[in-house]
Amino acid sequence: MATYTLPELPYDYAALEPHISGKIMELHHDKHHNTYVTGANTALEKLEAAREAGDLGTINQFQRDLQFNLGGHINHSIFWKTLSPEGGGEPEGELAEAIKDSFRSFDNFVKQFTAVATGIQGSGWSVLAYETISGKLVTFQLYDQANHIPAGVYPLLMLDMWEHAFYLDYLNVKADYVKAFWNIVNWQYVAERLETAKQVTLVK
């Protein structure tokens, strides 16, 4: 039995148009995300087989395979929920105050997050996260699916900057894709993740 399964989208493929086309959403979810789910399950099977056979020399490679594919699965599972046909605008309440406290204003945050996204070299993600020790919000670039994650952070908002996420709609103009993204951000879900993040204690 598979450990990881592909979650259903919380909206129709075309629900995010014109900002993200239904064709991209279908390919992105059914093909790309599903590939990570399959890869993660395969890596688990190979790890178990290697342990049973005592073939410990292959453990590191299979562990890297699991890290990459599980990263893709988790990142996309968060990404789908941070998008909504009813999204956009600006956050309210505690999330709005946290953004203001960490970035001085919502506009400053948008500029910084956009710079993070458009400045990625190669494939990766732009991430807004809660830093569990300082209680501040931070942004960072996540390369590929699991590399360069700062210690002690809890992702709140993630934007997929792999070409498969936008190329059919925006070609190589990343800035237009990021600009469109702000029209469909599900701030309520981001706020819920912030509340959860505040309960996490990594260092006492």
SSE blueprint and pairings:
Elements: H1 22-53, H2 59-81, H3 93-103, H4 106-118, E1 124-131, E2 137-143, E3 153-160, H5 167-170, H6 174-181, H7 187-197
Antiparallel strand pairs: 1-2, 1-3
Helix pairs in contact: 1-2
Care to describe what's here?
With 204 residues, this protein is mainly alpha-helical. It contains seven helices and three strands, in the order H-H-H-H-E-E-E-H-H-H. It has helices spanning 22-53, 59-81, 93-103, 106-118, 167-170, 174-181, 187-197; strands spanning 124-131, 137-143, 153-160. The chain has a three-stranded antiparallel beta sheet. A hairpin with a 5-residue loop joins strand 1 (124-131) and strand 2 (137-143). Helix 1 (22-53) runs antiparallel to helix 2. The protein is globular, with a radius of gyration of 18 Å. The termini are far apart.
Strand sequence of the main sheet, in spatial order?
2-1-3
Could you estimate the helical fraction of the residues in percent?
A: 40-55%
Q: What is the overall silhouette? A: globular
Q: Low-confidence stretches at least 5 residues in length (pLDDT < 50)?
A: none
Number of strands: 3
Largest sheet entry:
3 strands, antiparallel
Order of helices and strands: HHHHEEEHHH
Alpha carbon gap, first and last residue = 38 Å
Q: Number of helix segments?
A: 7
Estimated structural class? mainly alpha
Proportion of residues in extended strands: 5-15%
Mean pLDDT: 95
Radius of gyration: 18 Å
